[in-house]
Each structure stands twice: as C-alpha cells, then as structure tokens.
Amino acid sequence: MKISVAQLWVQDQEEALAFWTEKVGFEVRVDVTMPEMGDFRWLTVGPPGQEEMAIVLMAIPGDPVMDAQTRAQVADLTAKGFAGTVFLTTDDCRADYERLLARGVEFTEAPEERPYGIDAGFRDPSGNAIRLTQVTWSLASTK
Amino acid sequence: MMAFAPPARHLLRAKDLADARYAEPLAVEDMAAAAGLSRAHFSREFRRAFGESPHGYLLTRRLERAAALLRNTDRGVAEICLDVGLTSVGSFTTSFKRTFGKTPTEYRRSYPPASVHAIVPGCVARAYARPQVRTFREDSPAVGS
C-alpha cells in the first residue's frame, strides 16, 4: 500500500486554492466539479516533483452529508486549529520560510534548530497547521 | 481575499501568538490585540473556545517551556525564568510548584538527563507536555473564573 491523497477541511475552496498554489507553490492536480453530486468539487494540490501524493482541499459540506450543527462544529474545530496538520519536508527550511513569509504566509514559528532538523510552522487560512521541516532524522520512522 | 471563517480563527491567532512569543514580555492585552478584540470580550471568547483563560494558557506555555529547560539544560532557575518571559523568580517558583508539585530545583533533580530522547516534533512536545492547571493565583479575579 501507499499513501495517495490525504484530506484537509477548508473553510473556502477558492481561498485554499489561492493559498496552496500562489503562496506555498503547490500545483493543482485535479479540479473537478460534479453537477450530479450537488456541485461537489474534488480539488487536489501537491508539490511539484512529488506526483504520487496530493492533498484534497475538502469544503466542509452541508446537507445531506452534514447537518447544520455538525457542519458548524467541524468549521469551528478547523478554525481552532484542531482539524488537521500536514508535515512537509524541505531541503532548505530557512529559504522556504523567507519566500513564503514574503508572500504573506501566517507563520506560527520561525525556523529553529531541533534534534531532528530545522523546522518552522505556519497556518493555512482555514486554521490548519503546516510544519515545514528540513529533516536530519526521520519523523515517520525510527528505522 | 476575505472568505468566511468562524470567529475562532481570530482566537487561534492569539493562541499562536502565545506559543510563538512566550519568551517576550507578552501579556493578555497582546493576545487580545492579535484576535482584534477588547481585553474583556477576548478573555470570555478565548475561554469559551479553548476552555481556559488566555492568562492560564500563556502561563502554562511558559511553565511547560521552563520544565523542558530544567530537564534539558543546565541553565540556572533565575535565567530560565527570564528565558520563558517571566520576570519574578518568586512568582515563577510558586506557580511552578503549584503546577508540577515540586520547586524548579526539585523538579530538575527528579529528572536525570535521559540517555535516549524520543525524536518527536517540537510542536508535538509542546502541545502534549503543557501542564493542565485550573486556576492560578495570578489570575485576575475579575476576569474569567
């Protein structure tokens, strides 16, 4: 098995699309709207050079998927920063930080030396946390 | 582009500010400004969203960082107090003891340096190691409760 697509809840797909493409530098992989499914929009983005993995920017749905109360809870949890995190790796954390900062990305942490490398943190407009790590030790495995 | 976001998104900016700049002389007023709310309104809304006062959040962030520095460095207690944005060593020691059940010096003695540290992201360590305390003497009685 392999990981193919992972999901982030987003408050607004257009806003999320602009953020991930114009600010982070990802490319659009799939952008399909299906009228037969209540105009459901499957929107995925991924980093150039890593074709096999993408993030789906999922609009928080209303009826019939979520009732109004559930929808409000998911939107609220996302805004509080408790709905999702993406861990990105990079060859140069400080250079990426400078570039993204200049584009107006909301950083929560500037690059810092850690036992596993150098990393920084930022938020997407919806409230999701994104880590940006220049890895010297694998975070996914201790092997 | 201004898109819809629940009001909690602004409160998250205040929480992120406490996490990022606890080492500076940051106060609840600065957190309120980051959220774009008045001090009193902010404290109520923050507590409603996150279940604790902004003062409590900021102080436990500082105490968590202080505990990590006591475990992982040989810096003195007074220096660590200043390193985490607190100015009174007396208040620091009192808050620390109420939170961890030991004075900073006793706490340090109870944690001999581990030879092997698990490698987890710093953000995870900070989120999970932050102590949970219901009230602090430093809490303004007029706010929260």
Helix and strand sequence of chain B: HHHHHHHH
Summing up helix and strand content along with how strands pair, one would put the structural category of chain B as: mainly alpha
Q: Give the overall pLDDT of chain B as a whole number.
A: 86
What gyration radius of chain B follows from the Cα positions, in whole Å?
Answer: 16 Å
Shape of chain A: globular
In helices, the fraction of residues of chain B equals 55-70%
Protein structure class of chain A: alpha/beta
Helicity level of chain A, as a percent range?
10-25%
Counted by DSSP, the helix tally of chain A is 3
| Biggest β-sheet strands, sense, barrel of chain B | none
Oligomer: heterodimer
Q: How many distinct beta strands of chain B?
A: 0
* Radius of gyration of chain A (Å): 16 Å
Largest sheet of chain A: 4 strands, mixed
- Biggest interface, chains and residue tallies: A-B, 32 and 23 residues
Description:
The complex is a heterodimer of chains A (143) and B (145). In chain A, a hairpin with a 5-residue loop joins β2 and β3 (40-46). Chain A has three helices and eight strands; from the N terminus they run βαβββαβαβββ. In chain A, the strands form two sheets. A four-stranded mixed beta sheet of chain A has the order 1-4-3-2. Chain A has a four-stranded mixed beta sheet with strand order 5-8-7-6. Chain A has 143 residues and is an alpha/beta fold. The longest helix of chain A has 12 residues, at 68-79. Chain A has helices at 13-23, 68-79, 93-102, and strands at residues 5-10, 27-34, 40-46, 54-59, 85-89, 106-114, 117-123, 129-135. The relative contact order of chain B is 0.14. The mean pLDDT of chain B is 86. The longest helix of chain B has 19 residues, at 54-72. The radius of gyration of chain B is 16 Å and the shape is elongated. The interface between A and B is medium-sized, with 32 and 23 residues.
